[in-house]
Amino acid sequence: MPVISSSSTILVTGGTGFIGAWVITVLLQRGNTVKAIVRSEVKGLALRRSLFQDKRNEGKEALFDVVVIEDLTKDRAFDATIIGVDGILHLASPLSIDATSEPEEIIGSAVNLTLAVLKSALRQSQSGDHTLKRVVITSNGAAVYTPNPSEPTTFSEKDWNDASIAVVQEQGRDASLMDKYRASKVKAERAAWDFYNNHRGEIKWDMAVLNPPFVTGPAFQAPASPADLPSTLKMWYNLVVVPGEKARPAVLANAGWVDVRDLAEAHVRALEIQEAGSERIIVSEGVYIFQEWLDIANKVKPEGYKKELPKGLPELTAGIITYNLKYDTSKASRVLNIRYRTKEETTRDILEWVAERGW
Ligand SMILES: *[C@@H]1O[C@H](CO)[C@@H](O)[C@H](O)[C@H]1NC(C)=O
Questions:
Q1: Which residue range or ranges hold the NAD-dependent epimerase/dehydratase domain (predicted)?
Q2: Most-buried pick from 70, 173, 287, 320 (CB within 10 A)?
């Protein structure tokens, strides 16, 4: 039995982001009504434009609505919007953070944002008029893995990245931005599970959490220039497409990855599928070192893409590649049954998308 069938009403936070626009598209294709929470009218208009100038969303305008909530963490900010909603996909992250931010600021904003959504969801259950069946929260692989493992390690949903919390505790504001970011992901996800477990007896919905690692793929929005690309796609683009010498540490960087379109499908399945309830799920096709993307790009370069692509350091992938970081992705296969795009498919699609823009 699905928890949420198509033709439901789904609230989405973070819809203006890289993953969010694809998620909304999958929801609309399934015939759901979508309420997208945005922080300003301008962002709402931009999202509406990018969604409906695309033929995939043709004829779906009537199913889509934007709700402007400037400060999502303001007390009860979500309460009115949540009325009548069957499911929530919470993808939003706090606004921009930078290297000099206090860890308490970064971590506190992430935790407060997640709790704001869950508190409204709890109040809906306590009201006489509850419709909500499931909340799906987008966490991150960074909440799972221990950074830079010194030997090959396979991480699963049982693992938590307490290492980054320790680093931030020790180094405070001198900790790297990456460590602060990772620590915020751990704390926000932990806060979500604590809240969920503490209120199990009162809530009329259940929760699922997705932990995607590095996300890449074509962007749904149409950025004016490569500088406006979503951050993870920009990183991919800068390493794989932009000419120039590639430093060894950069092309050796090893992580898990998933195509943004498969991750969007995973979000919607995490709403629909009964067995996803109360689960934390790593969503990843597999792992890479960056040089592999460079090799693949040179191999699958589509006809439309005319420019030279950098070669990087192909000797790094000539032999057997040792991945120190790996994920056990069996839960996602079992519960969500995603057919992932391969690195080749994703690379070709990004390059075609880039070529269409004449970059
Ligand atoms: C998070 O919420 C707590 C409790 O309301 C508040 O004291 C704190 O300042 C908030 N943190 C941030 C960074 O907004």
A1: 10-278
A2: 287
Q: Is the CB of residue 79 less than 8 Å from the CB of residue 48?
A: no
- pLDDT value of residue 96: 66
pTM of the model: 0.96
Residue 187 lies in a domain: no
Query: Of all atoms in ligand 1, which is nearest to the CA of residue 106?
Result: 13
Ligand 1 atom closest to residue 73's alpha carbon, by position in its atom list: 14
The per-residue DSSP string of 82-122 comes to TTT-SEEEE----S---TTS-HHHHHHHHHHHHHHHHHHHH
Is 108's C-beta closer than 6 angstroms to any atom of ligand 1? yes
The domain of 306 spans: 214-259+285-359
What confidence tens digit (pLDDT) does each residue in 213-235 have?
A: 999 999 988 888 999 999 999 99
Tokens 């006809």 found at:
303
Alpha-carbon distance 136 to 94, whole Å? Answer: 17
Number of domains in the chain: 1
pLDDT in tens, 265-321: 999 999 999 999 999 999 999 999 999 999 999 999 998 888 999 999 999 999 999
Answer yes or no: are the C-beta atoms of 95 and 71 closer than 8 Å: no
Q: Which residues pair with 136 in a beta bridge?
A: 89, 208
Instruction: List pLDDT tens digits, range 181-208.
Output: 999 999 999 999 999 999 999 999 999 9
Evaluate: CB of 109 within 6 angstroms of ligand 1: yes
C-alpha closest to that of 21 among 62, 73, 64: 64
